[in-house]
Amino acid sequence: MVCIQIEGTIVAPNEPTNWDPKNPRIWLAFYNISKVLFHGNGVIDGSGSKWWAASCKKNKTNPCKGAPAALTIDLSSSIRVNGLTIQNSPQMNFVIGRSDSVRVTDVKVSCPGDSPNTDGIHITESTNVVLQNCKIGTGDDCISIVNASSGIKMKNIYCGPGHGISIGSLGKNNSTGIVENIVVDNAFLRGTTNGLRIKTWQGGSGYVRSVRYQDVRMDNVSNPIIIDQFYCDSPKSCQNQTSAVEISQIMYRNITGTSRSQRAMKFACSDTVPCTHIVLNNIILQSIDGTVETYCNSAAGFGYGYIQPSAECLSSSQKDIIQEKEADILTTTRTEHIIHTEL
Question: CATH number for the domain including 12?
Fold first, then answer.
């Protein structure tokens, strides 16, 4: 294995006009590499403050345009990243794209909570990825997983500030999104705008399935558990459409903490492509001030053990319950190998 050691601080140019307009999304990028270890106590600093100020999300009069990611690994396999700090990226901090067998351990990602589009670790078109012992604070999703990704395992993750741990968005512009075999095992989220989120646009196709969230604690999180098939990150209202990315076999086990919003659990699913096989086990979500509730629209599943707030709005017939218990076993079988697999 080739070792690349990073020490000290690597600092990006802080003036957006200094960047090559032909490659506006790239800073430190590695392509077509295999069996490489990135390690050390070094810091990768994207100097993103001027980019953030020019973002259309900061000021709607600004044009919306892409900005560099601090670190990108693409079209690669058998990669290890250990011990690095990535901070202040103009947009996404660390992108893993079109890669297989990637293990990221003891990595820290840091951006201000109001920095736009600064996803901490973004995974796209990748398989067999492990994120372990990572601390992420940023202005967008701490971890985002998008199309054509499977076999993703996150263990011992700290998230905050940020928008939580997200699958999606998927299905934008009537596209197909496929994500499956995902595990979040032991995470702590503090002060985030979302907790465990799956977000899809109307009009998409494909599926999200076999996802397990377990042993997750939340402190002062706005939307602790949320599935949103009506996601619309657009200045204009999104058109109602009947097709949707199908969401099924989603398990939440041992989820505890406090919610800033009344709807601690929200399953906002498509009327024509409902969410199915949602399984809840030992959920305790409380309000800092007041009561909390569960919202359901076209969502089927069941809960067992202690469930607070009640999730009786999940619709299931007896036949559905039997099928969902079978799906629970299937989800367990599909994801346990991720928990115990060492890359």
Answer: 2.160.20.10
